[in-house]
Amino acid sequence: MTRWAPRNGRGWSGSSKGARRLVFRHPLIGSAVVELSTGEQRRQAHRLLAERLADQPERRAWHLAEAAEGPDEQVAALLDAMARANLLRGDGLAAITQFLRSAELSPADIDRAGRLGEAAYLGSIVNGDLRDAPRLLELARRADRRGESLATAVAGAYHLLNGDGDVDSAHRLMAGAIEMLADPGDAHNKPLIEGLYTLLMVCFFGGRAELWKPFHAAIGRLRPGPPELLDILGKTFSDPARLAPPVLDRLDAVIAGLNQEIIPARISRIGIAGSYVDRLGQCRDGLWRVIDHGRDGGAVTSAIEALFLLGNDAFLVGQWQELEQVVDEGLALCDKHGYRLLAWPGIYLQAMLAAARGQEESATALADQMTRWATPRRARALQCYAWQIRALVALGRGDFEEAYQQSAAISPAGVLASHVPHALWSITDLVEAATRTGRHAEAAAHAAAVSQAGLAVISPRLAMVTSASAAMVAPDEQYARLFETALATAGAERWPFERARLQLIYGERLRRDKATTDARTHLTAALDTFRSLDARPWMARAGTELRATGLSIGQGEPAGMASLTPQQREIAMLAAAGLTNKQIGERLFLSPRTVANHLYQLFPKLGVASRAALRDALTEPPEGEASDR
């Protein structure tokens, strides 16, 4: 019989994928075990050691497991309890080995199936061994002849979703398994709670309101009530426009306690709960801990989720170089471990960045690739990603008809579609496109829907968008006040790209109304932001509008070193001298990521593409200045 045990009672030994053969090592056994030759003598030694370690339950359980002559539910239950305790401590690797050994010792098929299912599920989310899960699942199914194991269903649904993206099959399996439970309302049933987390992700990627009905029904019957995070996540991530406002205080309290969290999956789920309600910024430190944990051999799936969550935040807050770095790392992990579905949020971010920077061919190709994969699998959330990408491409080049068709596919004008959280990220796109194509009734209806939904209470960004949407459809005597309110929203600077887009829209309307001075103020501010982000289509739009005001673009503007802020100038000089980002950060009390972002912004101002060219750019005389040599 294959023996599974932790190295020094804590983790894996060996490096092969999947369920790995482990070597039992224990310093207390020493040479005695080697010298004892018979199986019974070895088992007796383990029993004696178990007696001596009564105050160390985990080590005692392993010795009892080694002393077992065959199936033994009492020892299996001890290992099962140790596995769950390790999960609470964040040690998923030890939990996997304990579930596997517990499965070996389980006399009952249903218990063996459940423990194998839990090991398969944990092996996927902790080790990233998605490709090896089918083997453990097959063993679990053989034991679970009557299909009674919820843990096996959880692992199977997780694999169906993340492997090939089979949304509907995963949904049927998970929802059906929950309905078949003798007591589907037991909130203390750990496999049930984990199954509901899995069902939640299935529903999200399916992107259809009807998929959420079994989830909400299951949450509603939990006794004495659903776990706090599951309840919050089920509202902020399913239908934030309708369900998020009442739980935002509770979410903020959970986020405030992130520094105390040690379980990677829980931290990433808190980040997911905050994603559509603009709270990722408050989760950054926790998400970086999850990433570091994954880099050190910890939970792979949670690390991938954390990388893409940080990428989402980086896009919104204009840290686009960081976005590229975290997305590249996340996609590499997806490729290594076979996470086909989970890769798409990263690809979406790549495409959004390409769209914002005017790389139309690349952005459109990624959107088309996403659509081809998502359509036959009925993964509507991914289709929403693709529609938003195409809308941003169209808006950048001024094709407002195409932008309207794409953004209206996410959520029709005048409606915040039920259980389509992505509708909160496409409000500006839809209202601007409707206005610019003469669909004034549709634009007004959507602005009204946003206002009536009370989105302004969710976050400052959505408050800004709510006021700006009203401004875009307001009559001449009201729009300026509403735009000014939007731009003055507390913390609006945190979302530079979206704010600059609103300044552009405002400046365009001011110019048409002959308010030239005010138009130049807002258009210039928008152009400066777009330049700092290298958002080239938007630079072109803002530049065209500024020229229409009679301002000559490109003349009399600072160039070269004169265009840099004092901090950028200092960073450029240090980088040209050969200092690394870390060394510059230590000298200027900045993080290496902040230094990297400043360098990325100053390169185009100096007309260089790399730090290797900085020295010449910084020593080159101003254009037109005579050389003494």
UniProtKB/TrEMBL annotation:
Top-level taxon of the source organism: Bacteria
Name of this chain's protein: LuxR C-terminal-related transcriptional regulator
Alphabetical UniProt keywords: DNA-binding, Transcription, Transcription regulation
Family matches, as InterPro entries: Sig_transdc_resp-reg_C-effctor (IPR016032), TPR-like_helical_dom_sf (IPR011990), Tscrpt_reg_LuxR_C (IPR000792), WH-like_DNA-bd_sf (IPR036388)
Gene3D superfamilies tied to this protein: Winged helix-like DNA-binding domain superfamily/Winged helix DNA-binding domain
Keyword Ligase: no
Keyword hit for Transcription: yes
Annotated ranges, domain HTH luxR-type: 557-622
